[in-house]
Specification:
The chain has about 140 residues and is mainly beta. Helices cover about 0% and strands about 35% of the residues. The strands form 2 sheets. Strands 1, 3, 4, 6 and 8 form a 5-stranded antiparallel beta sheet that branches. A hairpin with a 5-residue loop joins strand 3 (about 30-35) and strand 4. The protein is globular and about 55 Å long. The termini are far apart. The relative contact order is 0.24. It catalyses: dUTP + H2O = dUMP + diphosphate + H(+).
Length: about 140
């Protein structure tokens, strides 16, 4: 599958994979700033053309554990119709250094999704779990 990208600045870096078997493409910070809320914004300065029927999911990289940051929306969703810049907005919880220009800060996974239609019914089929929710499988 080909995905078109548009670099919005000279500092933008095309996403890469460290290994051919990796699911995610590393996203690079082309610039890093803080917003009025004290959040750390990592800009990619890249826009993507995700094909229809697909979604781009932006997850933090596992190396985020070396920082005091967390992605504010946990997982970013890039819909196929979105053509703006992809960036990560992070909440800083402590004093460990935030990301800098050139750092890999997130990973992009592109997935196909099904065409779904919701059908309202009076009853749902039974299951072994039923409506047992939080903690229903033990501690």
């Amino acid at each position: 599958m080909e995905i078109k990208i548009k670099k919005l600045a000279e500092t933008a870096t095309t996403p890469t994979k460290a290994h051919a078997t990796d699911a995610g493409f590393d996203l690079y910070a082309s610039r890093v700033e803080r917003n009025d809320y004290g959040q750390v914004i990592c800009h990619t300065d890249i826009a993507f053309e995700i094909p229809p029927g697909h979604v781009g999911l932006v997850f933090p990289r596992s190396s985020i554990c070396k920082t005091s940051l967390s992605l504010t929306n946990c997982v970013g969703v890039i819909d196929s119709g979105y053509r703006g810049e992809v960036k990560g907005v992070f909440r800083q919880h402590g004093f460990l250094h935030p990301y800098r220009q050139g750092d890999r800060f997130a990973q992009l996974i592109v997935m196909r999704y099904p065409d779904v239609t919701f059908v309202e019914v009076n009853e749902l089929a039974g299951s072994d779990r039923g409506d047992n929710g939080y903690g229903s499988s033990g501690q």
